[in-house]
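Quick start: load a record and inspect it. Here is Putative Flp pilus-assembly TadG-like N-terminal domain-containing protein:
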Amino acid sequence: MRVCPPARRPAARGDAGSIMMLTLGYLMVASMLAIVVTDVSAVYLARRSVASAADGAALAAAQRIDENAVYTATGQLDELPLADVLTAVADYQDRADPSGATVLTGSVLDGTTVEVQGSRVVDLPLVGFLGIGPVTVHAAADAQTIVRQRQEP
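Running the structure step on this input writes:
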């Protein structure tokens, strides 16, 4: 007498392909996160670059002292007169970013403080084709010249 193996029932097909759908869903979420991280990083790096350029331009402009006024002064100077602040900012902008993507503008707030405003337009590398962007980033910096009076011993 022969023993026959038990008959197998066909598997239910209701779950077929569900792993593939989950995998595709996870890949889509991961790629969207990568796109967002890449574009946010581009904006962040551009903002840091503009802030650095504004800071350097403010320092360069604050160090541009009017030497003629200093050496021809007859009395004690309470503040150092600044000269060619706008020229110093423009020179720094040309040296820091020869491409011209960063725009720096400088102004003298009072006799000793220079303020520099900077901006740059950033094209988003990955979502730009969707019509999102470009984004403009801004930064500001100021620098001050200080006269310290000589202390008598």
